Amino acid sequence: MELYQALYRKYRPQKFEDIYGQNVIVKTLKNSILHKKIGHAYMFSGPRGTGKTTIAKIFARAVNCLNSIDGEACETCSNCLNSFSKECVDIIEIDAASNNGVDEIRELKNKVNIVPSNLKYKIYIIDEVHMLSIGAFNALLKTLEEPPEHVIFILATTDPQKVPITIISRCQCYQFKRIDDISMYNRLKKIVELENFQVDDDVLNAIVSVTDGGLRDAIGLLDQITSYKNGHITLNDFHEIYGNLMEEELDNFIDLIFQNNVKGVIDCIEKYNCEGKNIIQIMKQVTLTLKNRLIDFYLYSKKMTCDEEIIIQLINQLNERMFDIKKTDDPKTYLEIFLLNFMHKNLKDEIKEEKDLHLTFDLKEKNGSINYKELSDENMVEEKISKVQKEKENQTIQKENKVIDQTKEMLEKMCIEAHNVLVNASKSELNLVKDGFDKLSDFTFDSNIGYIVCYLMDGNLRAANQEKFILSYEYESMIEKILPSLDKMMSNFNKITNLKKKIVCITDHQWDKLKKDFIYCKQNGISFEQLPEKAMSENNGISNKEIVESKASSISTKENETLSLFGDIVEIN
């Protein structure tokens, strides 16, 4: 029996004209072929399923064509026939996720100088290039800078931030955008017609909305739905297979939230979880439905069951929490706590409004008609708020201020710790930590600790001693964000690397000041001494120029000491 071919493979574009949604990139590449302005290295970056590898393959064939027509491969010449065959050895695709070591790249370097067997150019397509280790990037760097004339590199990545700037600067960079909804719908509609499927337009629109600009994901989901059910496919079939709520269920769930029906909401979430519904997708459904209700209200004056300000409030809070719920280990509990908090606040607001209403009626009975401005007077309202409510508000403010003070104290403490790390830092300890960081890339997609690993890799490794190492981040807000996860970062890093070190986080600006201070001391014979970590030091605890008197010594000797200790980590000006 012949093996079934997935739709995304069956309908993968073979020519530039088949590409959907990347018109600017396609036009640029075709013009470069047409005018013979071929670069030696390209970088394609963008979200998954947007055509990076597909366009790389099409470009590799077109650039080797002997009789290209407006930048397209003719598909009839000997080079085209060879490049389209599975036996082609001159178009090499490498998966950097599984071939990310130095040895693999060195082997590639040895083969680069071998001329192509049949084609004009030997094309290396390195997919997910950000997964290469630091050593592998360094091994690739020189070859990428000055490759032989018969070699073209095409690097594809979904995460260009993890690619060293030295690599990026040697490539022509193309940023792939998410495929627009109209292009995705048209492509799905064409596949449905070619395959003779019976699929409602609502289903295609739903697929477009949930796949977030990834055409490959959209075609894969269409394949899954048509495999689930033969015959006519409706929107309910889509909701059932994708783990969504039916329209009636969704409306009922939203009504329970705005009715502050705590038991009803908790029971619904428990039911959805038992049925295997996708909690994150339910949050997206709620957000989209509320957005549509607002549009209907503003454009068509359609009635709503609750105040639009409350709907806007819920939409904003859902959007703010979407990132956090994707990272949490238990989305169900996270959603329950979030909605309980939202409903509790709404309930308090309703009680307060009711009290204010009773107050208005009491005033009218005693004094007759009363001026509206007097009713809205802040002093009058404040006098009627209970002492208990005031105390709770004060406690909340005190807790928030306490958290802010603790965070500030922690940041200042780590500045002093960073200073002390440099006192007895060593290149050997730094290399140990660097080797440990090379192991982290294997865990970036781990469902449990992937976000922790990303926090670590987002930092810049600066220096290390036997007990600690320094990571710097661009903004202080980034450090404040990772502080709650700092213990988890340290335990996971030490578990992966078999080291026992604490992490000290400072900003890039603080590191620059600390490094400058360190170099100044080394060049002027000043002893760079430990600071008491419990004390608060001026200048964020990283100023040491006036601690000890200058000692006579040769500046060149001290520069050598600095370089031998830190290599390129500390720059000597």
Key terms for this structure?
three-stranded mixed beta sheet, Rossmann fold, disordered C terminus, 573 residues, alpha/beta, 26 helices, Helicase, Ruva Protein, domain 3, 59% helix
Structure description:
The structure is a single chain. The chain is α/β, with parallel strands linked by helices. It has four domains: 7-177, P-loop containing nucleotide triphosphate hydrolases (Rossmann fold, 3-Layer(aba) Sandwich); 178-242, Helicase, Ruva Protein, domain 3 (Orthogonal Bundle), CATH 1.10.8.60; 245-356, Zinc Finger, Delta Prime, domain 3, CATH 1.20.272; 407-569, no CATH class. Helices cover 59% and strands 8% of the residues. The chain has 26 helices and ten strands. The protein has helices spanning 7-10, 23-34, 52-64, 78-84, 102-112, 134-145, 165-168, 181-195, 201-210, 215-228, 235-242, 247-258, 262-274, 279-300, 308-327, 331-367, 372-375, 378-384, 387-423, 427-440, 450-458, 476-482, 486-497, 508-523, 538-541, 555-566; strands at 41-45, 91-95, 122-127, 151-157, 172-175, 198-199, 232-233, 460-464, 468-473, 502-507. The strands form three sheets. The protein has a five-stranded parallel sheet with strand order 2-3-4-1-5, with helices on one face. A three-stranded mixed sheet has the order 8-9-10, sandwiched between helices. The chain has a two-stranded parallel ribbon with strand order 6-7. Strand 2, helix 5 and strand 3 (122-127) form a beta-alpha-beta unit. The protein is flat. The relative contact order is 0.06. Residues 370-379, 535-565 and 567-573 have low confidence and may be disordered.
